[in-house]
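Thread: Newbie trying to understand structure tokens

Hi all, I'm a second-year student working on a class project, and my supervisor (Dr. K.) asked me to get a predicted structure for one chain before our next meeting. I've only ever worked with sequences, so writing a 3D structure as a token string is new to me. If someone could post the tokens and maybe explain what I'm looking at, I'd be very grateful. Here's the chain:
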Amino acid sequence: MKRVSVIGLGYVGLTFAACLADRGFEVLGVEVDKEKLKIIASGSSPFYEEGLKDILRKVIPGGYFKVTGDVSKAVKESDVTFVCVGTPSNPDGSVDLSQVEGAVKCVGRALSEKKGYHLVVIRSTVPPGTTDNLVKDVLESESGKMVGKDFGLCFNPEFFREGKAVEDTLNPDRLVIGAVDQRSAKELMEFYRDFYGDRMPSTIITNPINAELIKYANNAFLAMKISFANMFARLCEKLPGADVKVVMEGIGLDKRIGKAFLGAGLGWGGSCLPKDTRAILTFAKNLGFDLKLVRATVEVNEEQIDHAISLAEKMLRGLEGKTVSVLGLAFKPGTDDIRESRAIKLVEKLTEKGARVKVHDPKALDNARKVLGNKVEYSISIEECLRGSDLCILATEWPEYRRIKPRDLRKLMRSPAMLDCRRLYNPKDFKGVKFMAIGLGDQEH
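---
Reply by user tm_fold:
Sure, no problem. This is what the structure looks like when written as tokens:
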């Protein structure tokens, strides 16, 4: 099963397709956005993802990865189809499945004209029951064929981190396969054995609804860990000598808890956690069930920007007319993605409070312009961003910002002051400069 079609070339689909091609699979990628298709066909990427462009420059000219806008062609010329289209939020928090339904209809019509067995795999994040109901029904009605007999169907969620998507695709913690029947599971397992070889990760084979729930439970739990750290961060700020970074390090050494996702800061953003927590809350509510811990997780996250603003106001005794430098706009380092970025929300709040805001980001400035417009001043260097400001706020922990020293603040800023909202700096290094940080109580000097 070396011939693969991937429908939807966003962060999930393009990274997956490129990695498959890099391992020798023949990949036909489908994208309806003509401009995006043109960029990918040239061997480039429409977004920044570490290591992705290098792979594309190799597999596109090499012919392993071809792109098209024709779903039917892609399905007919492949043995397995992965559906990786977007599942954005509706205004009520539920999932908009129109792209999934549209893609699956096209796949079904293509299957009606194709001989032989074909495996369809859903990788888009969808609510529990979607694969067994919507996807299966549409495929059967459009193809005139039966799942399990004429074609296979699985739900196979991804769990990669943006900024580390290539690394996580090639070296995942585990695979989750939600198959409608044994043959579908067997076919997908053989596919992944071919892909991973002797580095095959631990795999859970279950039914589609469990696999769909695993994806949502996974992201809800990660979001909960971050909100837990931010909840304790606010407690630490009220206690002289307390530091949430030390507290979280202490509990993270417990093997039952683990170190990951315990960083206090501005909260969680990006394309997955906000959308998925809203979706599972709405899904459960429609079943008459309240996911209390998930709801509290979201509430803590929503409050965190206002909390950071209150710290900034405390440092400057008000924000009206003050110049604030914000370092970092992407929702996390290693990507240019600003979807649901907490840094962007912070900037918007600062401007609402009457501050003059200067911003810098190594990768996300162009994307930020599309959202922030002329509300802020864009700086192409860190020095330019700091010059003449009253407060510097570290909003995204890019490695470049580690180089900033107190002497830089004293030299460039009107009044040297740092608010560390990502706990990048050691407070002891900033003696002699007004310094505050999320989760840091008053420290003795």
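A couple of things are worth pointing out once you decode it. The mean pLDDT is 96. The longest strand covers residues 174-179. Feel free to ask follow-ups in this thread.
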